[in-house]
């Protein structure tokens, strides 16, 4: 096990029984369900109109902003699970704060390169995306509201999947199947969407592979901050710059044609797989170097 990963998992070792993780995840799910029902009741009592259009709401700015804002609930849900079942604080699931800004910036830099390369490949294969029907000033204003919400959303997912679940699994099991693959499978399953190309399975595969990249980055650095920066950058590209129809596309400056989605998912899969291979190669080289010393 990587020394950084071992140190990252240390806060979880005192209460690492698998039942605690299961209970924590059930508590998080119940918290989100009940808080969502409560918010719906408050909105009803306040006379607010019910959302119309189902998933098409996510193609409008207000729908995208609302979906991102729901991730504010993930933080107290995770805090509660950590306190109830593991007797530790929320900060322990993120890792040391020292060097956090540098790691976040490094992840953000990787994401900028990934978005640039995959977007260029998408344009070369599927043609340029269409410009959204809104002015630059309106887009900038919406982006100013969205950026902190994307930061909250990506941080919540990283704190749960690469923080809480990865830590607890690494504290109990040495195998990467437990601390890297299992959280990544759950992460991919969370992003299943029936309207996505291939019935949603290609999107699940791409998201699951991205989860593996984030997990390896967390294991290498001993915190979630590099993965958080990478996740934030990728989501900013997908939500604010070039969006795909049907899923959180209400804020994007450009939109891909629906016919191009199959090719775009394949490009993302190839790009994420390449990043995963690079990380695996770096890890092997680092271990070999330590062995020679």
**Series of H and E elements:** HHHHHEHHHHEEH
Mean pLDDT: 87
What share of residues is helical? Answer: over 70%
What is the makeup of the main sheet? Answer: 3 strands, mixed
What is the number of helices? 10
Task: Please give the radius of gyration in angstroms.
Answer: 20 Å
Shape: globular
Strand content: under 5%
Question: What strand order characterises the main sheet?
Answer: 1-3-2
Question: How many structural domains can be distinguished in the coordinates?
Answer: 1
pLDDT below 50 for ≥5 consecutive residues: which ranges? none
Number of DSSP E strands: 3
Q: Could you tell me how far the N terminus lies from the C terminus, measured between alpha carbons in angstroms?
A: 17 Å
Structural class: mainly alpha
Short account of what is shown:
The protein is mainly α and 293 residues long.
Secondary-structure blueprint:
Blueprint (H helix, E strand, L loop, with lengths): L2 H7 L8 H28 L15 H9 L4 H13 L13 H27 L3 E2 L4 H37 L3 H15 L10 H21 L3 H17 E2 L10 E2 L5 H32 L1
Parallel strand pairs: 2-3
Antiparallel strand pairs: 1-3
Helix pairs in contact: 1-6, 1-8, 2-4, 3-6, 4-6, 5-9, 5-10, 6-7, 6-8, 6-9, 7-8, 8-9, 8-10
Structural account:
This protein is mostly helical. The chain has one domain (3-292). The protein is built from ten helices and three strands. A three-stranded mixed β-sheet has the order 1-3-2. Helix 2 packs antiparallel against helix 4 (74-86), helix 6 (136-172) runs antiparallel to helix 9 and helix 8 (201-221) runs parallel beside helix 10. The radius of gyration is 20 Å and the shape is globular. The two termini are 17 Å apart. The mean pLDDT is 87.
């Amino acid at each position: 096990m990587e020394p950084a990963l071992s140190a990252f998992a240390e806060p979880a070792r005192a209460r690492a029984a698998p039942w605690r993780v299961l209970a924590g995840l059930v508590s998080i799910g119940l918290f989100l369900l009940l808080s969502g029902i409560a918010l719906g009741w408050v909105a009803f009592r306040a006379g607010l109109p019910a959302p119309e259009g189902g998933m098409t709401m996510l193609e409008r700015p207000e729908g995208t902003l609302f979906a991102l804002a729901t991730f504010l609930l993930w933080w107290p849900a995770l805090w509660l699970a950590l306190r109830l079942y593991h007797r530790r604080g929320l900060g322990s699931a993120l890792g040391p704060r020292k060097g956090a800004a540098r790691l976040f910036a490094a992840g953000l830099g990787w994401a900028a390169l990934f978005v640039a390369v995959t977007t260029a490949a998408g344009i070369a294969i599927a043609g340029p995306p269409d410009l959204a029907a809104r002015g630059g000033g309106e887009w900038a204003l919406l982006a100013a509201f969205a950026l902190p919400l994307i930061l909250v959303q990506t941080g919540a997912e990283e704190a749960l999947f690469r923080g809480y679940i990865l830590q607890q699994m690494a504290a109990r099991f040495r195998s990467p199947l437990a601390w890297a693959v299992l959280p990544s499978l759950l992460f991919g399953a969370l992003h299943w969407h029936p309207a996505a190309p291939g019935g949603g399975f290609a999107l699940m595969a791409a998201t699951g592979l991205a989860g593996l990249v984030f997990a390896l980055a967390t294991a290498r650095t001993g915190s979630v901050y590099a993965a958080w920066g990478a996740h934030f950058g990728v989501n900013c590209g997908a939500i604010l710059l070039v969006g795909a129809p049907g899923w959180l596309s209400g804020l994007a400056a450009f939109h891909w044609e629906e016919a191009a989605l199959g090719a775009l998912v394949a490009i993302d899969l190839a790009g994420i797989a390449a990043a995963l291979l690079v990380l695996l190669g770096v890890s092997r080289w680092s271990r070999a170097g330590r062995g020679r010393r």
